[in-house]
Amino acid sequence: MKYKNPLPTVDIIIEFGNAGIILVKRKNRPVGWALPGGFVDYGESLENAAIREATEETSLDIEILSQFHTYSDPLRDPRHHTITTVYIAKASGTPKAADDAEEIGTFDKDNLPRDIVFDHRKIIEDYNRWKNKNSQGNFKSKKSLKSGSPDKGAASQFNVGSPPEALTIEEKKELLSVARKSVVNRLKNRKYIAESSLDGLLRKKGVFVTIDKAGELRGCIGVFTSEKPLYETVAEMACAAAFNDPRFSPLYPDEVDLVDFEISVLSPLKEIKNISKIKVGTHGIYITRGVNSGVLLPQVATEYGWDVETFLSQTCRKALLPGDAWKNGAKIEIFSAQIFGEKEETV
């Protein structure tokens, strides 16, 4: 049998004002309603492919807001084995079916068409659950954080607000042990109560836990503030990242030895009015407006070579806000982080 790679594809969930999301009815097999999307051309980025396909099928001007999820079930497309990356976008203009689309329509979660093809009904259901969860104010009470992974092995000094004492090597190792033990015991249905007598772990601080598998994000959840000792918060966030991140299925028992834990201990958030206070590579940004919120970590701007305004715009898009929302009423807060993980030779 000749070896074949799965084919890369993209799909876009286009939020069209208050009307719902846009679906197109396909001319070609499999015939039915689907999210706009298609195959990625050679030499083309996923983002550019998503914009191109959506524009061709809907005649709209497309602006990508964020990457949602990846779907890879070999049976998701009856024609080929495809792997799709799904994006969330907004659009302007007048919807008009074109290219491979025979019809076009806007649908909310209560009036979806019956004949939705591929695995797009599941994608839409996942999106609606995610949107409903975010719209219920999950980021308000403790400023909960669900974010992409920070850069591996990087470390930032605390320099926002009053700088706390950095964790010792012993304290870092104990926190990583707590994170792993909390997840392993949960998988084995065993009760685990984290304990520590180390001074640094008795402080009450914001933290998030990132789980990676083979270099890919597997889960990431945290809080900006906590009323519990740091070791208890780490135990809770490790289990939340493993089992409650809505972007991923819960961690399976046979995966636990294949994943790596990384912990980011956060400085307090500090609201700013002057963006000159932001230091690229040092500060992370947390933006809120209404029920929307988004965060990007300090390392992201450095990795992509962004300046301050690009960093702010990208954080707005992470919050599913317009890229210029930071100029128009969005609240801007900054923070820094001390980051360490199991992959480091010396923690």
Describe this structure in words.
- This protein has 347 residues and is of the alpha+beta class.
- It contains six helices and 16 strands.
- It has a five-stranded antiparallel beta sheet, with helices on one face. It has a four-stranded mixed beta sheet with strand order 4-1-6-5, with helices on both faces.
- A hairpin with a 2-residue loop joins strand 9 and strand 10.
- Helix 3 crosses helix 4 (230-243).
- The longest helix is centred in the middle third of the chain and has 19 residues, at 169-187.
CATH topology label of the largest domain: Glycoprotein, Type 4 Pilin
From N to C, what is the helix and strand string?
EEEEHEEEHEHEEHEEEEHHEE
Largest sheet: 5 strands, antiparallel
**Gross morphology:** globular
The CATH architecture of the largest domain: 2-Layer Sandwich
SS class: alpha+beta
Helix content: 10-25%
The strand count comes to 16
Mean residue pLDDT: 86
Strand content: 25-35%
DSSP summary: helix tally? 6
**Regions with little confidence, pLDDT below 50 for 5+ residues:** 135-164
List the helices and strands and how they pair.
Blueprint (H helix, E strand, L loop, with lengths): L6 E9 L5 E6 L6 E2 L2 E3 L6 H13 L2 E11 L10 E11 L8 E7 L12 H16 L8 E3 L22 H19 L19 E7 L2 E8 L6 H14 L15 E8 L3 E2 L12 E6 L2 E5 L1 H7 L3 H11 L12 E5 L1 E5 L6
Parallel strand pairs: 1-6
Antiparallel strand pairs: 1-4, 2-3, 2-7, 5-6, 8-10, 9-10, 9-11, 11-16, 12-15, 13-14, 13-15
Keywords summarizing the entry:
four-stranded mixed beta sheet; Glycoprotein, Type 4 Pilin; 2 domains; alpha+beta; 347 residues; single chain; 23% helix
